[in-house]
Amino acid sequence: xxxxxxxxxxxxxxxxxxxxxxxxxxxxxxxxxxxxxxxxxxxxxxxxxxxxxxxxxxxxxxxxxxxxxxxxxxxxxxxxxxxxxxxxxxxxxxxxxxxxxxxxxxxxxxxxxxxxxxxxxxxxxxxxxxxxxxxxxxxxxxxxxxxxxxxxxxxxxxxxxxxxxxxxxxxxxxxxxxxxxxxxxxxxxxxxxxxxxxxxxxxxxxxxxxxxxxxxxxxxxxxxxxxxxxxxxxxxxxxxxxxxxxxxxxxxxxxxxxxxxxxxxxxxxxxxxxxxxxxxxxxxxxxxxxxxxxxxxxxxxxxxxxxxxxxxxxxxxxxxxxxxxxxxxxxxxxxxxxxxxxxxxxx
Length: 347
Known about the structure:
Helix content: 10-25%
Distance between the termini: 32 Å
CATH class of the largest domain: Alpha Beta
CATH superfamily of the largest domain: P-loop containing nucleotide triphosphate hydrolases
Oligomer: single chain
Strand content: 35-45%
Largest sheet: 6 strands, mixed
CATH architecture of the largest domain: 3-Layer(aba) Sandwich
Number of domains: 2
């Protein structure tokens, strides 16, 4: 098991990573999700041994890896730019790590054939890597990383250079390959679709710290903070004032009154916080599960209606948007009822 303990790193006198700690269990895929500059790739380089933290430890099964050089850590790396050897063909690229282990030629050939079948490259062995498409080159890079039976796989924005349709195809294939191989993995990305598709667990990085961790469903449905909700575009973020903290908990906003089941919000490391009347709060309001209701307490004038496959995205003049099954008229004032389960308090 990989364990990071209190990792710190600065650049130019400015802190980049501020006390990062997490684990990666056997066969688990963990995605580090965050905007550019949040320290994701630096963290990956520290795990690989390409950079040294100013403080903290990287451990494998309890062993501190600080004195272990990069080539002895047994970790595989897959980069966005593939980093293939242009003078070698596909099979030779895949076999590179195996030859470094001084295995017999017959054993290497058999292992390369098995790995290439896993990544859907059977029959590509003699082709030049420079003649391959971007998606095919990325499969070669994955096969090369898998071939030496790594203890851990690390991916640094591997699909970032591909177009959308190819990226979606490779996401599905990569998920299958990771599950079949059983190799634990750390996947770095700024794309939430990639993270939610591939991850068993998502770590959301912001300003050098992990601000949210959980399964994709947990992180999406309850981001926990205003920044996380806005980064994920998880719903409408609405500021308001508490009217009453009795059940149902009521918050007044410029769009109307929102009602929640209760006014208690968990605060990381500090238990729970109960809001009081008159207190300013931020709410995450779901765009879905909303219904038009003449008696609804949330309202606004329709300024835009866009058809989606499963309904209509309706934007109101107050900036809120919702998905409705039927399209209201432009300029119409509509009233909405939002279930309490679709509203959460944010920190």
